Structures are given as structure tokens and as C-alpha cells.
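Q: What residues go here?
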């Protein structure tokens, strides 16, 4: 058998997909499963986005496209509030990609050398850890705390930053906590990045998914993405377009240029007909996000209230994204044991917190991208003993 590379051996992937596979197996065996494991909104993409793809294919817009993205999409993005917050970036600060995940890889590969330190929130999105391990960066975890409503604290970032810090990753609203950072916190983290001349990678895929009229603050306003801020974003969550695989990254030109070359060398370009869907989604007056937000808000409140009524479980009210991180430490089980038991005994699929980092080992993540009826049913099943 051929030996695998060290890089391949470090690969972790996204364990949620393994949980989904187990849940599907049980389903195939006739078990009724309630799904809370994946962060995939159960809403349909806008009609106009779907029609734009069909039309583009019928018009034979099915060839290679410019590798950094079609001009119409980049222009529409530059004028939209998807990535920018009150300024218009230059077109060559934008890179159109197949979703946001790959942007993390491109951005880290183009700025971080093996051994460079990268500060990552714990708990945080699993791809950060996988990609950083794959690229041999040194991961420096900064703990998020439930007492601080899981928000990233600039003092904690400062405590672990040093001259070897090459990048700081922030994610507000956050997966898996749903926390949304305040303006002061964002400004503070930007200050640390500036002091140590580090890249500040701001993952804003949930930027539009917020409740209680809370604002999303992006560090991009401080340098207009000309110096150090790289904004990672996509149509996946805000426009319920996960399967389209369409994203846009905004950053300093010289970094975006190299990320574009990496994209060109590895996947050539994003399908042109998919990019047309992005143009249509941005131009559609029917606001897909606000329709979703209304329903997500109802689910958020229902789920968190229900969880807090169950013995041994407590859960902070998240202010963004569509995740609730429930504390199950009083059950005497680890998050992993609890998640296994929940799936086997109650047919409820959730993600154990440990997947997102050690700080969440006594937690499980519920993704409320499922109907309210399923949420109520899950709460009822959890209330039943044993
Ligand atoms: C924080 C975060 N960043 C990035 C992504 C990847 O998004 P995309 O589907 O656009 O690749 C996800 C998906 O779950 C996420 O939660």
C-alpha cells in the first residue's frame, strides 16, 4: 500500500458529515430522526437565482469564466452589503470562489508559512483547525467563555499574541456559539492584529443572520481591506444557497491576486452559470434573508426556551447564526456521550461540542435549520425519561 503524505494524515474534515451519515443509516433502518447536526438552512434559494442558472445554461454560458469571477458579479458585490460595510472596494480586492470554506484555505496558504502562529477561537469552526493543521501552521487557541456570552475578548487575544503571530481568525456571528461581537471587541481585536502586523481573517458568512436588532461589526471598516483584513463570505447561509457553492472574498489586492492564482491553478474558475445566480440573488428585491430571519428567530426562541426547561441542560440565547450551544455538564456526561445517547435513544442528531474545540467538550450544538414542529418534537422527546 502507498504511504500517505504527512499532510494527508493530518486531515480531519468536517465530523458533522460523519454524524449525518450515522443518522442516515438509522433512518434507513426505519428510525425517525430529527436533524440538528448540519448548518444548512432548510429554505429554498430565491426563484430568481434558480431561474438565472437555467437561463445561463440555456444560453450556453457553460464555458470557462475569468478565474477571479465574472465582472457583473464582482460589480454587484462591490455595491452590495454582503461584504462591505459602507465603502466600495476596488474590483481587484474581490475574488469569487466556490463557497467560503475554500477561501479559508486560499487565504491561509497565501499568507501563513509552516510554523507561523495563528490565533483561533476555541470553540470555533472545524475547518480552521483542519486547514491550519494541513498547512502546518501553529494553532494558538484563544478560549471563548460562556460567562462572556461566548464573545471573543480582545484582552484574551492580546494575551496569546506575540511577534510570531501571523494571523488572527475571528467569526462573528459565530459557529458554533451564535455569539455576535460588540463594536469595541472588534476594534480591540483589530488593534491587536495591527500592533503585531498580522492578518485579520474575519469569517462573516453569518453576517446577515442576526436577531434582536443586534449589529454586526466588521473589522473591514478600519482598513477597507487594503492592509490586513480579509473578509470571508458566501451566499450559502444568507441566501440559503449552500449547494450552489458560491462565495466572495475581499482583501488586500496583493493577497487576493495570489489567492486568485491558487484558485486558477487548482479549479480554474467558478461555474459561470452559478455566478449568474449570485448576480440575481443580489438584485432580487424579494429579501430572502429577512424572510428566513423571521422563522429562524421563532425557532431560536422556542429551542432555547425548551432546552432550558430540561433537567441538566442550560443554554445561552444566541444573537446570530442558527446554532445554540447547550451546556450539558450537569448530566454527568461529556458532550460526545450525550450526543451519542441522544441519537441512539431519542433519534435526535446533534453535534458534540468537542468537534469545535476543547472548551466546548461539555456542550452539544443544535443547528435550528429545521421546522418548528421538529424542534417541539425534539424538546418533547428530551423531556421524556430516561
Ligand atoms: C463559520 C463558517 N465559515 C465558513 C463556512 C463555509 O461556508 P460555505 O458553505 O460557503 O463554504 C461555514 C459553514 O458551515 C461556517 O460555519
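A:
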Amino acid at each position: 500500500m502507498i504511504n500517505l503524505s504527512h499532510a494527508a494524515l493530518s486531515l480531519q474534515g468536517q465530523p458533522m458529515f460523519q454524524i449525518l451519515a450515522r443518522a442516515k443509516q438509522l433512518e434507513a433502518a426505519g428510525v425517525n430522526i430529527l436533524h440538528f447536526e448540519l448548518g444548512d438552512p432548510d429554505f429554498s434559494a430565491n426563484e430568481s437565482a434558480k431561474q438565472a442558472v437555467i437561463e445561463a445554461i440555456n444560453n450556453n454560458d457553460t464555458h470557462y469564466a475569468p478565474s477571479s469571477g465574472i465582472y457583473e458579479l464582482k460589480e454587484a458585490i462591490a455595491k452590495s452589503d454582503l461584504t462591505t460595510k459602507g465603502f466600495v472596494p476596488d474590483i481587484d480586492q474581490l475574488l469569487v470562489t466556490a463557497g467560503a470554506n475554500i477561501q479559508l484555505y486560499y487565504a491561509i496558504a497565501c499568507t501563513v508559512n509552516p510554523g507561523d502562529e495563528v490565533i483561533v477561537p476555541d470553540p470555533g469552526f472545524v475547518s480552521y483547525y483542519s486547514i491550519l493543521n494541513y498547512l502546518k501552521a501553529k494553532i494558538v487557541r484563544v478560549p471563548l467563555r460562556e460567562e462572556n456570552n461566548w464573545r471573543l475578548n480582545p484582552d484574551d487575544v492580546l494575551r496569546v499574541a506575540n511577534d510570531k503571530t501571523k494571523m488572527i481568525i475571528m467569526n462573528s456571528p459565530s459557529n458554533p456559539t451564535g455569539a455576535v461581537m460588540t463594536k469595541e471587541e472588534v476594534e480591540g481585536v483589530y488593534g491587536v492584529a495591527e500592533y503585531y502586523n498580522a492578518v485579520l481573517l474575519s469569517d462573516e458568512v453569518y453576517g446577515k443572520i442576526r436577531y434582536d436588532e443586534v449589529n454586526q461589526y466588521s473589522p473591514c471598516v478600519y482598513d477597507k481591506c487594503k492592509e490586513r483584513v480579509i473578509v470571508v463570505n458566501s451566499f450559502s447561509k444568507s441566501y440559503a444557497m449552500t449547494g450552489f457553492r458560491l462565495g466572495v472574498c475581499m482583501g488586500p489586492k496583493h493577497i487576493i491576486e495570489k489567492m486568485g492564482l491558487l484558485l486558477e491553478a487548482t479549479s480554474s474558475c467558478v461555474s459561470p452559470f452559478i455566478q449568474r445566480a449570485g448576480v440575481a440573488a443580489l438584485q432580487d428585491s424579494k429579501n430572502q434573508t429577512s424572510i428566513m430571519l423571521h422563522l429562524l428567530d421563532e425557532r431560536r426562541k422556542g429551542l432555547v426556551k425548551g432546552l432550558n426547561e430540561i433537567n441538566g441542560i442550560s443554554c445561552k440565547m444566541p444573537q446570530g447564526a442558527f446554532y445554540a450551544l447547550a451546556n450539558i455538564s450537569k448530566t454527568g456526561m461529556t458532550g460526545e456521550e450525550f450526543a451519542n445517547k441522544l441519537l441512539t435513544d431519542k433519534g435526535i442528531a446533534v453535534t458534540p461540542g468537542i468537534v469545535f474545540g476543547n472548551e466546548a467538550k461539555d456542550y452539544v450544538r443544535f443547528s435550528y435549520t429545521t421546522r418548528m414542529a421538529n424542534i417541539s418534537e425534539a424538546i418533547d422527546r428530551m423531556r421524556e425519561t430516561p
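A: Context that may help when evaluating the design: The pocket of pyridoxal-5'-phosphate is lined by residues 39, 99-101, 125, 171, 175, 203, 205, 234, 236, 242, 247 (CB under 6 Å). The mean pLDDT is 94.
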